[in-house]
UniProtKB/TrEMBL annotation:
One of its GO terms (molecular function) is zinc ion binding. Residues 626-641 have a biased composition (Low complexity). RNA polymerase that catalyzes the synthesis of short RNA molecules used as primers for DNA polymerase during DNA replication. It is an enzyme of class 2 (transferase). Gene3D superfamilies: 3.40.1360.10, DNA primase, catalytic core, N-terminal domain (3.90.980.10), Zinc finger, CHC2-type domain (3.90.580.10). Belongs to the DnaG primase family. Contains an N-terminal zinc-binding domain, a central core domain that contains the primase activity, and a C-terminal DnaB-binding domain. A zinc finger (CHC2-type) spans 39-63. GO terms for biological process: DNA replication, synthesis of primer. Its EC number is 2.7.7.101. This is DNA primase.
Length: 669
């Protein structure tokens, strides 16, 4: 994606503190001069993402994710650059000047399907809001909200609206406003009639609950009936490219920060329960849209918290939800507790009767999922009068735990669960472990092996050695240490790039042969393709006299959607930090120019040596192929018509060997 730079990117960068930005999305804790948190871009169980305020970057040492504020928003929220720019500008209160596409990669082909659906959803939210506030059309919906005691503040926070009592209210608005009709169809907001021409509204005569994603963008809608004769009670949007019901939590846009602050998410049953909780001040409540807690919900919540409390009323549906919570607990993704509301009340009734104190008491009495399951088993055990009956209850409980995921637990969590079960059942830990092991599924698949018959004809050892050598040459593997060599030169290339970004003046640093870096190493000569691409960006900027900083480089790469190169830039910078000597703590004005220069020159030597070795190896390969000589023989005996070419190749080969007397070895950096 290419855009004409009008200065907005730099304004937004300067106005955005990356620690505060990421801290709004993830829990962070200070560690020295940096901050650490659980990386949201892989299944991180031990905080491995560092946020560096001095450089305004983040970097994960486990998966390599890294970049600046733009990169974080783009990757975390699955946005393109313009969407991330608007998001950060709005957050910082900066008014953007219009962006205009320039060159290839803009929006010449029109907005994507996802963007069209998002635009239709936003227009629908405004339409439903307008009708809710209409003196005549919205009267019935406003009366319902008044009976439920929903305040205007909550109506605004959750974007509530009203779908009119007609078949084509939204359809008519789309037509009259000239909106993108197909986008509304893709969003499942309007549908074609099964008979005859025209379309009809999906939601009619209902209170509308827009469903927002984590940053407040409408992705779907729910509608509650206002009259008894209208069924079903709730009607939800079908899934679309923007809306995955199993991964969406209602109210997350309003609850995310309170969840991060409290490290706890409270999951209630439905839309009105969430609104009641937030209205009473219990702002870390969300709902799972009528589904049980799913693995997708867990992945989403793990970004923000360590503990989930599932609030249920104890009915059959609640028991099923509890089983799912036990599975989540056993597999170790989150700590899950279950709170049962007293007397069959819903959250709204409890909060109105007892306020936040009563709500907090219910949450404080929540049992962890395993304890909740045990208490249910205990009730069955007490109702059984025979030893055989009690045995069946215990064995059935163990089998259920196996089915729910005990076999997938890690060793530490399994040991904890076994200890808890032993205490609950008044059995030894070894006995509990044996019961679980006896019911764990075992693989019945045998490992098959096939021995090659001894009498099959094949090449002899000499032929195999010759083939191995030729194959090695063919693939450019002239040394058994080629893997290490490529790894070493990769480190050297990253160090070269990071050093130049850290200190632009080193671009003209002089090597031992008198040549400068900008003359001695061109981008095309780097061995790793991504390194070549990143070095090209740095090289071009410095050659044109433009300052290149890590901050500006990440911003430019974000514009072009070059996430891999952004990660590479931050990885190279962090590797350079690790290679530098520790600064003197008593020296406030420590300047790392000289140690960085020393590392740069060593890296440049390694890169140049690898380039020469590669050239020598290529010449050797050409000579070997042309002569078809056995390994170790001196090149020669070329056909007469190729004598000139062979002589030139041989001359180049000899000169290359003289210039690089130790091929096959690169000093470890």
């Amino acid at each position: 994606m290419s855009f004409r730079d009008n200065g907005d990117k730099e304004k937004v960068q300067e106005a955005t503190d990356i620690v505060r930005l990421i801290g709004e999305h993830l829990p962070l804790r200070p560690k020295g001069k940096e901050f650490v948190g659980v990386c949201p871009f892989h299944n991180d169980t031990n905080p491995s993402m560092n946020v560096v305020p001095q450089k305004q970057i983040y970097h994960c040492f486990s998966c390599g994710a890294g970049g600046d504020a733009f990169s974080f928003v783009m990757n975390y929220h699955k946005m393109d650059f313009v969407e991330a720019l608007k998001f950060l500008a709005n957050r910082a209160g900066i008014e953007l000047t219009p962006w205009k596409p320039g060159g290839q990669g803009g929006d010449e082909q029109g907005p994507s399907e996802r963007k069209r659906i998002a635009a239709a959803n936003a227009q629908a939210v405004d339409f439903f809001k307008l009708l809710l506030n209409h003196s005549e059309y919205g009267r019935e919906a406003r009366a319902y909200l008044e009976r439920r005691g929903v305040t205007p503040e909550m109506v605004e926070t959750f974007g509530l609206g009203y779908a009119p009592d007609r078949w084509d209210g939204l359809v008519t608005m789309v037509r009259e406003k000239g909106w993108d009709k197909q986008a509304f169809e893709l969003a499942q907001l309007i549908r074609p009639r099964k008979t005859g021409d025209g379309d009809f509204d999906f939601l009619r005569r209902r209170l509308v609950f827009p469903i927002f994603d984590g940053i407040g963008r409408p992705i779907a809608f729910g509608g509650r009936k206002l009259r008894d004769e209208d069924d079903p009670k709730y009607l939800n949007s079908p899934e679309t490219p923007l809306f995955n019901k199993s991964a969406t939590l209602y109210g997350l846009h309003a609850a995310k920060k309170p969840i991060i602050d409290s490290k706890t998410a409270v999951i209630v049953e439905g839309y009105t329960d969430v609104i009641a909780c937030h209205q009473a001040g219990a702002n870390n409540a969300v709902a799972a849209l009528g589904t049980a807690l799913t693995p997708q919900h867990v992945r989403e919540l793990r970004r923000y918290c360590e503990q989930v409390v599932l609030v249920m009323d104890g009915d059959a549906a609640g028991q099923k939800a509890a089983d799912r919570a036990i599975e989540v607990f056993l597999t170790g993704d989150l700590d899950v507790s279950i709170a049962v509301l007293p007397g069959g009340q819903d959250p709204d009734e409890l909060l109105k009767a007892g306020g936040l104190d009563a709500w907090s008491q219910v949450l404080a009495e929540a049992e962890d999922a395993l304890g909740f399951a045990f208490n249910r088993m205990q009730a069955s055990l007490e109702s059984s009068e025979t030893t055989t009956g009690k045995q069946r209850v215990i064995e059935g409980f163990m089998t259920k735990l196996i089915d729910l995921g005990v076999a997938r637990m890690g060793d530490l969590r399994r040991a904890f669960v076994v200890r808890r079960l032993a205490e609950m059942l008044h059995m030894s830990e070894s006995a509990v472990d044996s019961l679980l092991a006896a019911r764990s599924p075992r693989s019945s698949r045998a490992v098959e092996s096939y021995d090659q018959p001894a009498d099959i004809d094949g090449p002899d050892a000499t032929d195999m050695a010759q083939y191995a050598y030729e194959n090695e040459v063919q693939n450019g593997l002239a040394s058994s240490h080629s893997g290490h060599r490529l790894h070493a030169v990769g480190i050297a290339e990253r160090r070269l790039i990071a050093a130049l970004v850290r200190h632009n003046s080193l671009f003209s640093a002089t090597l031992s042969d008198g040549s400068a870096i900008d003359e001695a190493i061109s981008p095309a000569e780097l061995a790793v393709p991504d390194h070549r691409a990143l070095y090209q960006r740095v090289f071009d900027g410095l050659a044109e006299g433009r300052p290149v900083t890590l901050h500006s480089l990440c911003g430019d790469l974000a514009v072009d959607g070059q996430h891999e190169l952004t990660q590479l830039a931050t990885t190279a910078d962090r590797e350079l930090d690790e290679a530098l000597p520790e600064p003197d703590p008593d020296q406030d004005d420590f300047n790392d120019l000289e140690p960085v220069k020393e590392l740069l020159l060593d890296a440049a030597v390694a890169v140049i040596r690898h380039r020469r070795e590669t050239h020598t190896q290529q010449l050797r390969q050409k000579l070997t192929q042309d002569n078809n000589a056995p390994p170790g023989d001196a090149p020669g005996n070329a056909p007469a018509d190729d004598s000139n070419r062979q002589a030139e190749l041989l001359r180049q080969y000899v000169e290359s060997r003289k210039a690089n007397p130790s091929p096959g070895r690169i000093a470890r950096l």
